[in-house]
Amino acid sequence: MTVPEEFCLRPEEFCGVARLFPLPNLVLFPHVMQPLRIFEPRYRELLEDTLADDGLIAMALLRPGWESNYDGRPEVEPVVCLGRVLTHRRLPEGDYNVLLLGLQRALICRELPATRSFRRAKLRLLQDRSSMAEPHRLLALRRQLLTLFQRLLPADEESRDDLGALLGKQLSLSDLTDIIAFTAALDIRIKQGLLSECDSVRRAQRLLSHLRALVPTPPPTEVKRRVYLPQFSQN
Asked: What are phi and psi of 89, to 5 degrees?
């Protein structure tokens, strides 16, 4: 998707500190939108602080073992996705419905001391880069990604329309890779690995490998056994 200019992240405007929203089952990517239902008191406070400030939230993935310390400060993966709140609606019971737009990868340099109910961290923005590749190679990667993604989509009209809209956009390889990585039914740790890869060509190659593993293998064609006549008559 094309990010409206008013929602883009300008590095010079980022103070370097962001609120952390850690979850065990979500990896946000740049260029995608994620609806969220915010109901825990500490994350209500986080959102209210966000709305009063810069509108930015860093979505982080909890590391394995988080269950024993979920209400505390369990470890998170160091690479996060910085997102901006596009819309929000406060519900009668005090919960919020939020639409968050992924903007840019970032690295947690250090987590700040706890002064609020939610967590904050010093972040370094990560720039997307591309290893050396000839234009025809980039086009081939893009074509392979789209072909495999099409095979994995449900065979319904809405999914085909969504794919048609995606095909109709002149997305860069980086943007396309992030959108497919977010959408595809990949293991959450695989998604985190793709988020952590800043080289768009290597990221696309890794995603291709994972998508191929998801594509159903057709059943082997039954080969009829050929019956040979005996060389000598047994009569």
From this structure: -145, 125
- Output the pTM of the full model: 0.85
* Count of CB atoms situated within 10 Å of the CB of 32: 18
Nearest to 17 by CA among 110, 127, 85: 110
Give kind and range of the element (H or E) at residue 61.
strand 56-61
To which residue do tokens 């074509």 refer?
Answer: 143
Q: Please name which of 84, 88, 82, 97 lies closest in space to residue 127, comparing C-alpha atoms.
A: 82
Q: Is 48 helix (H, G, I), strand (E, B) or coil?
A: helix
- Measured distance CA(122)–CA(36) in Å, rounded: 23
Closest C-alpha to 197, from 142, 140, 111, 131: 131
**Alpha-carbon distance 67 to 70, whole Å?**
5
Rounded Cα distance between 131 and 199, Å, is 6
Q: Which residues face 96 on adjacent strands? A: 38, 90
Summarised one tens digit per residue, pLDDT across range 80-122 is 999 999 999 999 999 999 999 999 999 999 999 989 999 999 9
Domains of the chain: 5-125 (2.30.130.40), 135-214 (no CATH)
Q: Which two tokens stand for residue 11?
A: 């590095």
